[in-house]
Amino acid sequence: MSKQKAHYFHAIQILGDNCTGCTSCVRVCPTEAIRVRNRKAIIDPTRCIDCGNCVTVCHFHAIIPRSDSMKILEDYKYKVAILPAAYFGQFTEDVSYEVAKAAVLKIGFDEVAEEAVITEFMVKVIRQYIRNNRDKRPILSSNCPAVVRLIQVKYPSLLPSVFHQEAPMSILTRYLREIIEEEKGIKDEDLGIFLIAPCVAHVTAVHQPEGAHTHLQDGAFSVSMIYGKAREHIKELQNNPPKIDTYPKGLTWALSGVQAELVDCEDIRTLSVNGIENVMEILSRVEDHYLDQYDYIVLRSCTNGCVGGCLNVENPFVAMSRLKKMIKEGKPNEINLEGIDKLYNSGEFDVVPLAPRPIMELDKDIKSAIKKMKRINEFLTMLPGLNCGACGSPSCYALAEDIVQDRASLDDCVVLLKRHSKEEEDNY
Amino acid sequence: MGEYWNIKPELEDSVKQHFSAPPEAEVELEFEVPEKDFNTAGRGSSEVKDLLKRLGVDSETLRRIAVASYEAEINLAAHSKGGVMSCMIYDDLIHLRFLDKGPGIEDITQAMIPGYSTADELVREFGFGAGLGLPNIQKNSDALHIQSAKGSSTLLELLIFFSAP
Ligand SMILES: Nc1ncnc2c1ncn2[C@@H]1O[C@H](COP(=O)(O)OP(=O)(O)OP(=O)(O)O)[C@@H](O)[C@H]1O
Ligand SMILES: [Mg+2]
Questions:
Q1: What is the pTM of this model?
Q2: Which one of A85, A206, A381, B131 has the fewest beta carbons within 10 angstroms of its own beta carbon?
Q3: A265-282 residue pLDDT tens
């Protein structure tokens, strides 16, 4: 496992040649991680949470998701794909769940596993965790890696409330490693487990898992790429319907609202939130203890949950509707996860406490921070207050802060520049 | 004219000193709080919270400030004809002032009782009106001062120290 050497922190890449410096990305970044300088966008890696907003908004193909090349499959003898529930929402309704799943076996994988298979197990574990940690309520869901990073950078005081167990994908990976080695006699180094990712945050999480003890997956491919390849085999499979297990009741995982409903029960009240702006508003209210009446809050950075990830092909609402249909029409299937409880009880799914990565503070020392804040306010009074973003910072405030932190100068303000040149003209 | 004071005993000296000779604030912010506009109300508190995060104020103090300022801001929107929220930041404390355009509070002591509320239908529809705002402000502040009378404007101001003892 983990032959992957390439080390990158973010699954987002800027192609400088394509970037026009239009500043669209600057404006949609929830953590203000992007600046345009010298007419090119740059991302501050300490602030980026891999939400994918910039990828979605860039029309110039200048900010692109990074995922692995299928070539890396060659390094392994036995290759397993883990499919997220969102994958099944990508196909048109004439393509059955079975066909969509079996198609993945035709494109280079020896086995295909589904996130959906452990939904029930996850619900059990989450409920248990909530009951054991009543003092930290509301517990915040941790399966969206962008949300976890958001909490680390902007709401570090909430870290103790984050559900501290491996993400479902990783639990499944850990389990598969154990089972496949045992049942099929495949050595660990020959076994490659790959995540099919609906969003860039999941790709990043594969390469740089937060809180995990070990690297679990060997790579990540985008849903759109796998979908593209799988589609070529749909016709042939439809003519020869495959026999393959499915877990319709578990597909709920891709839908933020439905996931919350599953955990909700007599003694556990849940709330479900999706879309990064909503998530930030809710986290801010959790910080002030305004949402203490909830025991569990499901937070997803993308619209409607993972179906809204930027590596999918289908619209999140259409994909959600399809999944709901599959869930409703599907017959429950016997799920046998023998041994998973043993792994769980022996602490195999524990994670190390998440570390804060605060980005907000101007200075370590409050007095110096206040001095900087004063200077920021001074600059702010000089700036036009239009928040046009033409300078390459997301707002006048952000430019003022950039100036004080020596990352920009007043000359970057286009509006001021124009005013000054006009004054000069008038003086002649 | 009714007047109400509540000061944490151990901080009495510093509080009195602050009010008797208010020093010039390091950073000042002001927000309009319009009447019955529950979308805008709350904006001031959330901006203040963002600013304090930038200053590195610890999370527990931050929470106390956020709660007190949010409740006071909502009260302006819910019970008054609107007003102004001002925020003055010093090295060691924050001073928040809420001044509205009336109609004033007739009996402040009564208004401080948990559960006492005159919130109208509209305000309740927005989920406010439990009568817990003022008691909550008091619980989270190091010093609270309210000045009001029937038919006049209400002034509510509070101090919260950054490194609370
Ligand atoms: N700025 C104000 N102007 C006039 N009356 C006020 C003002 N602030 C508070 N009051 C009066 O004091 C009462 C109690 O206020 P408090 O904030 O404790 O409760 P509430 O606002 O009614 O409900 P809650 O804060 O729980 O949503 C209010 O119902 C109102 O009658
Ligand atoms: Mg109130």
A1: 0.85
A2: A381
A3: 999 999 999 999 999 999
